[in-house]
Design goal:
Layout lengths: L8 H15 L6 H4 L3 H17 L9 E4 L6 H13 L1 H6 L1 E4 L1
Parallel strand pairs: 1-2
């Protein structure tokens, strides 16, 4: 969603309602509405936490288990962020959708 291009709450509500109509789904999650920014924000937080908890001499290992992953929008955004911004973590990470 282009929040900067919207004129206020009314336009936001109209845009979200239109997305629901076009999406063919009764429920849109934050990762669908705010794609790809939502998944990137979560991934960035995870990367920062891993680096803070891991010695710099070791590559952090990450295992993600996503329950109810839907069509994989969050997984795609999360893994794309890792691949671009934390290739060391991406290379050893495992991601499971349940």
């Amino acid at each position: 969603l282009d929040f900067n291009g919207m004129f206020g709450e009314l336009e936001y509500r109209h845009t979200v309602a239109k997305l629901y109509e076009e999406g063919g789904s009764a429920w849109l999650t934050p990762c669908e509405l705010f794609h790809p920014w939502y998944a990137r924000a979560v991934a960035r937080f995870v990367v920062e936490q891993l680096h803070a908890q891991t010695l710099r001499s070791r590559t952090p290992k990450l295992r993600v288990i996503e329950v109810g992953g839907g069509n994989g929008t969050f997984a795609r955004g999360f893994l794309d962020y890792l691949k671009t911004h934390a290739p060391d973590i991406y290379g050893s990470a495992s991601y499971t959708l349940v």
